[in-house]
Specification:
44% helix, Phosphorylase Kinase, domain 1, Aminoglycoside 3'-phosphotransferase, Chain: A, domain 2, Aminoglycoside phosphotransferase, 2 domains, Kinase-like_dom_sf, 9 strands, alpha+beta, transferase, globular, transferase activity
């Protein structure tokens, strides 16, 4: 009996769960394994490491809270149970409802993704948001995260031109922050299209809530549509045109209150730059530490990630992407 199977059979209603019912799902991301419970409509999310640097219990508490808080949006899986860390399951696991769907096809599914994000962004911010982060100034917090992660550029194999362009973008980001006060809503953070599933009715479901927090909605809109995100998942692997990004934004605007849309508008371009820098700096780290960060990753996925990092850190690619806000 595997540790995961043993932990699952201790849950109410799963005592008779057959080991044969556990079906490992293809590894798509860097931080979790997923195991389907055939015949039960459930999936176990088994962390491989915490991208937020949290200890196992704190990481599970964060994710469990995220699933509970996002559930009223109607666009995320429902949390069923939490499996605490233990022998053979050092990071514990979450048990969530299975979403039956396919990988998004871009650009046609971008409006559905926009509506899913809008449903999340319409949710209220609780009086006590803990344990989810809720910075008083979400733009300053994002800039501070970029500043911390910028140290990873020094260890990446960047060309002089690439480093010059990145330094120029960091300087511009520091100097061009939108004036507050800023809108604050629940934000998914890791909202690249590969983290969505499209069901038979065309509805988009956001499935990876590890990084959910409270922040500026423009972060999610950026991360869902930037080149660095739409090329992240090899099953998505699409480049959106400017018109397609504009249509995505328009679908989101149509699905949120007018006051929220108006409050978000000034931050669209500045946070697009900051969100891109957040991803770029993380990928600079991956380019040097990917093997250590996610051991056991299947070679085809690792090769794709490595190639993606090399691509987005090229001076030519940096120059092209930054035209989005220039």
């Amino acid at each position: 009996m595997t540790p995961l199977h043993a932990a699952l059979t201790r849950l109410p209603g799963l005592a008779a769960l057959s080991a044969d019912a556990l079906e490992p799902m293809p590894l798509k991301g860097v931080a979790h394994d997923h195991v389907r419970l055939r015949g039960h409509g459930l999936v176990a999310r088994v962390p491989r490491w915490s991208q937020m640097g949290l200890d196992p219990l704190a990481a599970l508490d964060h994710q469990a809270t995220a699933f509970r808080r996002a559930e009223p949006s109607g666009h995320t899986p429902r949390l069923v149970a939490l499996l605490p860390p233990g022998e053979g399951l050092p990071m514990g696991a979450l048990l969530v409802t299975e979403i039956l769907g396919r990988t998004p096809r871009l650009p046609s599914d971008m409006p559905a993704i926009a509506r899913a994000l809008a449903a999340l962004h319409r949710l209220p911010v609780p009086a006590d948001p803990a344990p989810l982060p809720a910075p008083a100034d979400p733009v300053a917090a994002l800039l501070a995260q970029v500043e911390r992660q910028a140290a990873w550029f020094a260890g990446a194999a960047l060309s002089p031109d690439a480093r010059r362009l990145i330094d120029a973008e960091l300087d511009a980001a520091r100097a061009a922050q939108p004036a507050g006060p800023h809108p604050v809503t629940p934000v998914g953070v890791d909202t690249h299209p590969g983290n969505f599933l499209i069901d038979a009715d065309g509805k988009a479901w956001f499935t990876d809530l590890e990084k959910l927090q409270y922040g500026h909605p423009a972060m999610d809109l950026a991360h869902a549509s930037l080149y660095t995100s739409t090329k992240w998942d090899p099953a998505v692997d699409t480049v959106l045109t400017d018109a397609e990004v504009a249509a995505f934004h328009a679908a989101w605007v149509d699905a949120v209150p007018a006051a929220l849309a108006e409050a978000v508008r000034p931050g669209l371009k500045p946070l697009r730059r900051l969100t891109w820098l957040r991803t770029l700096s993380w990928m600079a780290r991956w380019s040097r530490e990917g093997t250590a960060l996610s051991p056991g990753m299947p070679e085809p996925l690792r090769a794709h990630m490595d190639a993606h990092a090399a691509d987005i850190l090229r001076a030519e690619r940096i120059e092209r992407v930054r035209r989005d806000w220039q």
